[in-house]
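Re: [ENG-882] Designed sequences occasionally contain unexpected residues at chain ends

Forwarding the minimal case from QA. Structure tokens:
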């Protein structure tokens, strides 16, 4: 048996149904701020500087994650490689 249910509701009604916050005004404010910055710096437009205030925390998190991965891989490589090489060195 197959049952199909269709709901005819707007995104705003879904948001209210699930108790999600309405972030439309916040998104509009951010976009207006970005537009202002773009218009102010048309001649010397630098997209990195434009989004830097919004991405500062995110980039720091990615840097920390990347360092963690590098440390984990280097420890795994030195741990497995170090054990094998020390066993070879002890043989006559």
């Amino acid at each position: 048996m197959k049952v199909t249910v269709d709901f005819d509701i707007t995104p705003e009604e879904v948001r209210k149904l699930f108790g999600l916050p309405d972030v439309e005004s916040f998104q509009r404010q951010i976009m207006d701020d970005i537009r202002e910055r773009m218009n102010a710096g048309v001649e010397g437009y630098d997209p990195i500087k434009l989004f830097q205030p919004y991405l500062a925390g995110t980039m720091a998190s990615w840097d920390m994650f990347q360092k963690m991965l590098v440390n984990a891989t280097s420890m795994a490589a030195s741990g497995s490689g170090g054990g094998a090489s020390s066993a070879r060195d002890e043989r006559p």
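QA comment: On inspection the terminal residues look reasonable. The chain has one domain: 11-90. Proposing we downgrade this to a documentation issue.
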